[in-house]
Write a structure and sequence with these properties.
Helix content is 69%, strand content 0%. The protein has 300 residues and is mostly helical. The chain has two domains: 120 residues, Four Helix Bundle (Hemerythrin (Met), subunit A), CATH 1.20.120; 155 residues, no CATH class. α4 crosses α7 and α6 packs across α11. It starts with a helix and ends with a helix. 44% of the residues are buried. Belongs to the DoxX family.
């Protein structure tokens, strides 16, 4: 009779045994590349054609789309997981910046371009589940994908906040600077806007893409605790998300629970951490920042 521990050995956890297999089986990458290329053209048009992307927003959107296209065209075909992640993040930033500045042409093109990216990811997940469905403990693989999707969503969601602070242009920056001055920060408000944007961007990279995910989750948890206790006031307005006078602590607690979970376990195989671990490129002394070695030694 097989022991439960031996059954768990077949489940890929901290990293995939073969990243060449962790990829879509049906959805071609060419559609994603074409969509990203079209979005880059739309960014150029909105920045220097109809000027709906102002000042720095035009440059940031264009440069981020160049990164997304480069990754999708040159890295994704070689190794899907890191290539997809490194094209998804800059694409989401550019899309968010376009939406904040009412660059409708780019928003619509990006909305269409998002479809093949989403289908690629779904195809990758389903392909991985099909490969593992007859293995002992296969349901743990399904559970891992559930937590991966939650981690990616809540991590990459921070791009919405970081983009408005440091990528969306001077208009949005000064608007937020004025808002931060309302917290009594005075002349240093601008520095806090930039600092907040950088921390949120780091959170998206670390938690959303899974790069030193445990460290990033810890920093994110502390950041939201400080921001909401010291400035936001959510903890004094009751529980409900839509409490009078501003949101309560419902959503803040949700974020902190997710970040705490990532801090305990790490990101899993669909992450930059997992890919670096499998390649042997992560120094041993830094591995504890990526995944829980004590509980992860029987996985991957």
């Amino acid at each position: 009779m097989n022991s439960p521990v031996r059954s768990l050995d077949v489940v890929e956890g901290a990293y995939a045994n073969d990243y060449g297999l962790l990829k879509p089986s049906r959805m071609p990458n060419t559609l994603s590349v074409a969509g990203l290329a079209a979005t880059l053209v739309a960014a150029l048009y909105c920045g220097w054609g109809n000027h709906t992307l102002p000042d720095f927003a035009a440059w940031s959107s264009t440069l981020w789309m160049c990164v997304a296209l480069f990754s999708a065209a040159l890295i994704t075909p070689r190794t899907f997981a890191p290539g997809f992640l490194m094209s998804l993040l800059p694409f989401l930033i550019a899309w968010r910046v376009a939406a904040m500045n009412d660059a409708h042409v780019m928003v619509w093109v990006a909305s269409i371009a998002a479809v093949p990216l989403l289908l690629q990811f779904a195809d990758c997940v389903l392909n991985d589940l099909r490969r593992d469905r007859n293995k002992p403990g296969a349901w743990l693989g399904l559970l891992l994908w559930q937590t991966t999707i939650m981690r990616m969503y809540f991590g990459l969601n921070e791009l919405c906040h970081s983009s408005e602070k440091i990528f969306a242009g001077l208009g949005w920056f000064h608007r937020l600077e004025t808002g931060f001055q309302g917290f009594g920060l005075g002349e240093v408000a601008a520095y806090f806007v930039v600092l907040g944007g950088l921390i949120e961007f780091a959170s998206a990279v670390s938690v959303g893409l899974g790069l030193f995910a445990r460290l990033g989750a810890f920093v994110s948890l502390v950041y939201f605790l400080v921001a909401t206790v010291g400035f936001g006031g959510e903890w004094s307005r009751g529980y409900a998300w839509a409490s009078p006078g501003g949101g309560g602590w419902e959503y803040v607690m949700l974020l902190m629970v997710v970040f705490a979970g990532v801090m305990v376990t790490g990101a899993g195989k669909f992450s930059l951490d997992g890919w670096l671990l499998r390649r042997g490129w992560m120094p041993r002394r830094l591995r504890w920042l990526a995944f829980n070695e004590k509980w992860g030694r029987h996985t991957g």
